[in-house]
């Protein structure tokens, strides 16, 4: 699907859209991001979302391409210090 990709991070909240929209990011085996164009990101997200309709898609998930397992992602947000 995407050469070199090992994991996809999938959500229905594309950071560039104000409304729910399928979005995916790809990562290699070392965890480094792989650049996707808009079509690749949407197609990968839709494919994974359709494979797992029972998931709560308000959350962010990681999909492992080697095992075809979907798990809830651990998302760390940067806090502001004062």
Structure write-up:
This protein has 82 residues and is an alpha+beta fold. 17% of the residues lie in helices and 24% in strands. The protein has one helix spanning 38-51, and strands at residues 7-11, 23-27, 33-34, 61-64, 69-72. It has a five-stranded antiparallel beta sheet, with helices on one face. The chain is globular and about 30 Å long. It starts with 6 loop residues before the first strand and ends in a 10-residue tail after the last strand. The model has no long low-confidence stretch (mean pLDDT 88).
Q: How far from one another are the termini?
A: 44 Å
Q: Which bin fits the share of residues in helices?
A: 10-25%
Number of helices: 1
Provide the spatial order of strands within the biggest beta sheet: 3-2-1-4-5
Outline:
With 82 residues, the protein is α+β, with helices and mostly antiparallel strands. The chain has one helix at residues 38-51; strands at 7-11, 23-27, 33-34, 61-64, 69-72.
């Amino acid at each position: 699907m995407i050469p070199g990709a090992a994991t996809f991070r999938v959500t229905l909240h594309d950071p560039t859209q104000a409304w729910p929209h399928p979005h995916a990011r790809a990562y290699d085996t070392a965890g480094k991001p792989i650049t996707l164009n808009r079509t690749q990101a949407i197609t990968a997200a839709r494919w994974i979302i359709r494979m797992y309709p029972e998931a709560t898609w308000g959350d962010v998930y990681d999909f492992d391409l080697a095992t075809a397992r979907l798990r809830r992602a651990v998302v760390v947000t940067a806090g502001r210090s004062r």
